[in-house]
Amino acid sequence: MQKTFNVTGVCVPTKHYMVDISRQLCQIQELVKQGAYFTINRARQYGKTTTLYALAKLLSDDYLVVSLDFQALDTAKFADGHIFSITFAQYFLKRLLQQNTDITKELNDTLSILSSEISEDKKDFSLFDLFQHIAKVCQMSPKPIVLMVDEVDSASDNQVFLDFLAQLRNYYLERDTLGTPAFHSVILAGVCDVKNMKRKLRPDEAHKTNSPWNIATRFTVDMSFSKNDIAGMLRVYEAERHTGMNPDDMAGLIFDYTSGYPYLVSALCKLIDEDVSQLERFRTTSPWTKDGFFEAERILLSEKNTLFDSLIGKLADYPELNTLLENLLFTGSAISYNGDEPAFDIAAMFGFIRNNQGTVEISNRIFETRLYNLYLSGAKLQRMDIYTASQKDKSQFIAGGHQIMAGNKTIIEAVV
Asked: Are 319 and 381 in contact, with CB atoms under 8 Å apart?
């Protein structure tokens, strides 16, 4: 079966053209070896699920890995501590047995006891009871247990989940102080960090930044793709397809416009491979050229997709984010990055901006273009003086539908 570029779900090496993420995996593996509890907070479609999938396989020789996805659970299950505890225990047992074959008799006996407890649906089965059983499972396990939970955002509106985090913290602390059996490492993956979960749950509380996850190790692994990462993937593609492209040149172009955002990299490659290649003018020539790339960019910027829909939706959900982005795009003034300002925190969390040596920048040229097109086409903005000025000056910045650069600074980019 011929490989394809994938923009939905988990990327599988045998089915999809992929960037080699072994660098990121090795760094995360080191955190696991240290017994760290941490959160992988990255924007939507940034490769979190694919990374967890590959990490679980990498760790399987040395650990019992239990991978959960909170998106698979009914969100109503998070509203009540008892129901959550029962549901989590059932899900945990199911995944532990599915994902691990080396279950000893001692561990199996412990799992049977837990199974009998939750099958009776005892009304007093609480988070405390859940963690008492988890401690026994960890004690009887032949290998240290690593817990991975993807899509933790699904639980972000519930006090029960914060109570769950508090229990994880208590057992983490008692692991070192009292020798209490506990998970060796816990990895939570999602867009929101726990601080933002707290804000979303109780936005009017003065102590909203207090976190039950304050034992988490800082996660600094760069999950974006470098130019070399992209070039490596394209070399594999070229070796199989023989299109005549220059992988290094094409990787440089893709990186310049995406800044290595995983979804955007894969989306542009997929469009060139599957859509641009079918256009009449590319029937007799390779689509893997600058012209082919810009055609794919045009298609990407004009289509609706889950990433853009999610980003645009956040502008309505967070008015302060909308104001920040308008100022950043249209005032022309440099804005210093302030991590204590909620608008900056939210914009960075959702992937809109990045901190470039203390100055705020839009994360990549694709996002910049999409936002410009959104704001410049808005009826409200068209009534503003800034719209008139931007339309008047637009010819200075656009040539052939693409942006003109001033030194190393991007002035503007738009589809015309």
From this structure: no
Average pLDDT value for the chain:
87
Distance in angstroms (rounded) separating the CA atoms of residues 404 and 50: 36
What SS3 class is residue 261?
coil
Cβ atoms of 410 and 363 closer than 8 Å:
no
Residue 179: C-alpha distances to residues 138, 147, 164, 175 (Å) = 12, 19, 20, 5
Position 58 pLDDT exceeds 50: yes
CB-side neighbour CA atoms (13 Å) of 216 = 20
Query: Which residues are bridge partners to 146 per DSSP?
Result: 65, 185
- Between CA 342 and CA 363 the distance in angstroms is 17
Minimum mean pLDDT range among 194-208, 355-369, 398-412: 398-412
- Calculate the CA 356 to chain-centre distance: 20
Type of residue found at 291: D
Amino acid 147 reads: L
Query: What pLDDT does residue 331 have?
Result: 81
Chain centroid, CA 239 distance in Å: 30
What is Dmax (Cα atoms) for the chain? 76
Please give the Cα distance from 173 to 176 (Å, whole number): 6
Report, in this order, helix, strand and coil percent for the chain, each rounded to 5. Answer: 55, 10, 35
277-322 pLDDT, tens digit per residue, is 999 999 889 999 999 999 999 999 999 999 999 999 999 999 999 9
Which of residues 153 and 12 earns the better pLDDT score?
12
Whether the model pTM is above 0.90: no
Does residue 6 contact residue 16 with C-beta atoms inside 8 Å? yes
d(CA 188, CA 148): 6
Percent of the chain with pLDDT over 90: 67
